[in-house]
Amino acid sequence: MKKLVLVLLTSLAFSSGCSDMFMKDPKPITPPDAPPVIDDSTVAVEPPGPDTTPDSDKYPFPNNSCVQCQWYYCPPLDSVWQKEICIDYCLDPPAMLYEGECKEYLQCDPTQYHLDYIDCVTEDGYPGTQEKVCNKGQIQYTDCETECTEEMCNGLDDDCDGDIDEGQLNMCGTCGLEPIEICDNVDNNCDGTVDEDLYQPCYTACGTGVEFCNEGNWTGCTAPPELIEICDGLDNDCDGQVDEGLTCECTIQDVGVLFPCMEEPLLCGQGFKTCECVDDSCTIINTTECFAFCHYFPDPDQVCDPHIGMVIEDELCNNFDDNCNQLIDEDLYAPCYSGPAGTVNVGICQPGQVTCNYGSWGAIDDNGNFISGMCEGEITPQAEVCNGIDDDCDGITDTGEELQETDILFIVDWSGSMDTEISAVLAALNSFASQYSDEKVLQWGLIIGPKVPDQYYGNHNYLEMISNLSSFSDFMSLFAGLNGTPMSGQYEMLYDAIYLSIWNIATILPYGMGDLMWASGVGTSLDESIPPLEDFVVKWRPNAKRVIIVFSDEKGQSYMLPDPLPPGGWSTNDTITQDLLTTTVASTPDLRVYTFSPEKVKEVWNNEGGWEPIAKASGGKWYPLSTSITEMYNYLMEIIDENACSTK
Q1: Which domains does the chain have, with CATH numbers?
Q2: How far is CA 322 from the centre of its chain?
Q3: Residue 382: predicted pLDDT
Q4: Is the dihedral of CA 351, 356, 361, 366 positive or negative?
Q5: What is the C-alpha separation between 517 and 534, in angstroms, rounded?
Q6: pTM of the entire structure?
Q7: How many alpha carbons fall within 13 Å on the CB side of residue 197?
Q8: Are 195 and 321 a contacting pair, CB within 8 Å?
Q9: pLDDT band at 24 (very low <50, low <70, confident <90, very high)
Q10: pLDDT confidence of 569, banded at 50, 70, 90?
Q11: 84, 99, 133: which is closest to 9 by C-alpha?
């Protein structure tokens, strides 16, 4: 009975002292690199009697297979403490026979945090290292970290497997796609054949043909050649004029010979002229005017109109009505190309089209004027830029450069005052983005504000994230949906837009995500953003470069308030200020901000609301806001070249 009471008391002491800290089914602690810790002071040991055989019913229960003694965690929690508990599993139910005191167990010296660096393997299977540390006397290991990544084509062993660029090189042993075969007597695509299957359109003033590459040279153009003009009543050099610059004198052998002609006084079609004697002795010979064939060989059964010639089925570009439909040079088009030989249909280079106008090939300009020799729609070689395209049409894409992972976020002022500039901005953005439509390393996003509902004018202004960072196709489909969206807002909250776009990546953040609210509680000027503030998070990729491009014709403004409001009132423009925004922008890693605005708000008086300081703080640049699509496009190309491109 005494033994049972002691066991019960021990159980009660155990449950009252440690019940709050033990799990219902506690697991024993077996130190991996230390022997069990036993404190003899907690065990009552009776003096040995005549029989010195150990008592199997007393701690430490020698030779008693029913009793198992193991270590368990116990308070306090500021370090690792353990106690030994012995349980007899042969009893039903099992009973605790012994409970030791809580003892602090140390696996290492708590004063020495760093112990060693150990090789490890990440979850992705890359080799790495982790730190072995002593945390409160216990050995722990940090996460396995590595600089190894998925293999890329960059001359480095990215995945740390000992091989460089494996599975990335093309047939030529270089990065990217195989070079395009060009006409240079070199095996550009490394398939063992030189200049294979290369042909291109070729053009003369007389028509279109095809030429072929032979040992690095374009030869064998099948287009009708431009001949030297001779006295034969034909336009030999295809310049729209017949026998021009020639004094065509008839000889006695030419008398009665008919020469084709298409000129006045003939009205249309093909006629003929001949040489005829002026006197009976034929000492003077003249060339007749151009008349119809029936003029020379009349048919008694038909009425002859000497000014209506033989209808020519295909109209020619000669300032004449060849097919007698009372139209001159109608519906005549031909391909054209003015770039260097060997560049057409290489890279971006494409042929254009000319049309005939009164015997001259050319095209209509933007002002509606016909320009002789102009080739409409042709694309000739351009300066090479880093955009994934062969701009200079030499068969090599982005010479020495490759696109890097880059996230590009556009923030556009959608207020009524931007009406004159927005067309140029949107057109430039469309052209700019389409240059990179196939580049998966680039992500695109768009935020606009202030927007207003259709039924309101000027009130209920709000900021909207049209497209979070996403693929080009998703971005453009949302972008296109802006067509016709009203522009009647008047509260340009673009300082707020920049702050919200980086508050999940900035390292200095004066206001957290729960510390701000829109000034929507005062009148009807402001509404909640879309999405609301708690969900307004741009999905920046962790390893990508970050670019924010802002367009506005007004100074930077803020329409957010601290939440809760401080006592004594608060002005919205005291929330996201120029100084606060420059500090936050400067603290954001891998970010550059580029701003477009009129000169008057480049740097606003009293150091507030300016756009250039924001750009400079991030290492970006300020640009003048322009209505010229070409200027805006060129500025954007400069930005992408500076950020998304790098030398291989």
Answers
A1: 2-104 (no CATH), 181-222 (no CATH), 333-372 (no CATH), 406-647 (3.40.50.410)
A2: 53
A3: 87
A4: negative
A5: 10
A6: 0.48
A7: 6
A8: no
A9: very low
A10: confident
A11: 99
